[in-house]
Amino acid sequence: MEKIYPDSGVELSEFTAKNYDKVMNIASFGFYRGFIKKAIADLNIQENDKILDLGCGTGRNILLMNKYVSSDNSVLVGMDISENMERQFNEKCKSFSNIKFINQRIDQLIESDQKFDKVFISFVIHGFPHEVRKTVIQNAYNALKPGGTFNILDFAEFDMNKMPFHHRFIFKKIECKYAFDYIERDWKDILKEYGFENASEKFYFKNYVRLLTIEKK
Ligand SMILES: C[S@@+](CC[C@H](N)C(=O)[O-])C[C@H]1O[C@@H](n2cnc3c(N)ncnc32)[C@H](O)[C@@H]1O
Q1: Strand pairing partners for 116?
Q2: Closest Cα partner for 47 from 147, 118, 151?
Q3: Distance 11 CA to ligand 1 centre (A)
Q4: Contact 67, 36 (CB under 8 A)
Q5: Is 81 in the pocket of ligand 1 (CB under 6 A)?
Q6: Which option is the CATH number for 14-54+106-216: 3.40.640.10, 3.40.50.720, 3.40.50.150, 3.40.140.10?
Q7: Cα(129) to centroid(ligand 1), Å
Q8: Closest Cα to atom 8 of ligand 1
Q9: What are the tens digits of pLDDT across the range 66-92?
Q10: Which of 10, 96, 118, 198 could potentially form a cystine with 127 if both were Cys, beta carbons 3.0 to 4.6 Å apart?
Q11: What CA dihedral angle connects 10, 146, 46 and 55, to 10 degrees?
């Protein structure tokens, strides 16, 4: 994929996209598998939920969500721009008629009348410049039904300078520069400005990762 944002770590190379799930398993020393299952369980998915996954990747997360829904009444939509991710997603999800992939940029305003109960985004929004994140938030807002929730699974808010040295060293080495300002912002306040309210949070990986759930008014 050609990079639009020079410091982004979420615009993946073909190699990383092709091996994404393996890379995550190995880089996390095997902890990713259990963590992502737990985070998806924490989404409190209801049987008939319609869910949009922005920057969905390989479809691993949507398949985990699919365990909680009824295939007759739910719709699970993954959006991504990587053709490599699209191939893996379609292969993984081919037996489920309630799951769909849309090749769509999420950093530009999306025009669609389809409304969802939940919008999920995991490890994508930190990887854009802040102005671009605002468009992603607007897309999430527009795609939700009133009372629906925006669920951001990503880095929590923390002070990099207060991290133990070895954690800080790894974070600075592997993360894209956009993540460094992402962790310093007050995301509940930012989301309130867009018309979201009633935030709740779950934390993982020594509180460095957070699932932030917030409702559309
Ligand atoms: C770090 S991966 C996360 C994938 C998935 N959400 C997960 O947690 O496994 C980032 C994903 O965002 C996608 N992506 C990057 N820029 C995008 C854009 N502008 N529009 C849509 N998807 C994008 C990439 O192709 C990639 O699949």
Answers
A1: 144
A2: 118
A3: 7
A4: no
A5: yes
A6: 3.40.50.150
A7: 14
A8: 122
A9: 999 999 999 999 999 999 999 999 999
A10: 10
A11: -10
